[in-house]
Structure of diguanylate cyclase:
Amino acid sequence: MESALQFYKLILDSTSEHIVVIDEQGDIQFVNKQWSNFGLHNECTVGQSWKGVNYISECDKAAAMGDEFGAQAAMGIRGLINQTLPSFYFEYPCHSPLEKRWFMMHVTQFELDGDRFFIISHQNITERKQVEEAIANLAMADGLTNIANRRMFDQFLNLEWRRCKRLEKPICLAIIDLDFFKELNDEYGHQKGDECLKLVANLLNGLAHRPGDLAARYGGEEFALVLGDTQLENACTFAQSFLDQLAELDIENINAPTGTKLSASIGIAELMPIDYESEQDLIKRADKLLYKAKTNGRNRIELDRG
């Protein structure tokens, strides 16, 4: 009997899925090696053992902090326990600071000696979701610069606002306007102007390297940089790096009143997401600061912490 149990445990530990077994009260009775390793590497361990931890309570705690996926998981598991659902599964994101990840949660049940137990498996579906995301992003990319368009910006900012609110982290938004871009177009032609927009987009995209970051073409010669889980000082460093790199490109704009090279004005706002504000408040703050940068001489950064 002991060797048979060890044999089955080795099978479960060898699978790529993260598996946990709970009883009708939601208490964890078993986790496989993949589950333990994931918890260890993602700072969600619970002491010496997972056994006895109430899985549903942990989902409820996440839901109370604004995690809609935690609420969805708790509702589905309770549906199986109450026998209102035959099975339950859903897909959810589980991004880390360094990479994007998606999982599929699947819950089924079995009986042993008259007691009911529930198997919860989490399968990594990142590769599939990345392909789906790449296809979807074709409709979310700006046709000229190939970075995110305004539609993608609006959707991303909304999701990042909600994520930072749930985690109680700040979010920064930089709105960038190229100084006297009309003068550049008039002097050198729209083809040259389009080339400049592509170069600027490439510089900004190089700064948006985390899952919580996004560079977008905001409209015309305006761009936006979303920086999730970022404090104002760090956002300012990113913005100054962009201005320095733009200066190094040495793009002529001989008719600009403030100089002979292409420059940019930037407004940066930071907010800690709270219930009575929204991402639109962040946009308004950043836009107001951009206007301040332009009225104070351009080729500069204006910032403010909300």
Notes: The chain is about 45% helix and 25% strand. The CA atoms of residues 22 and 28 lie 4 Å apart.
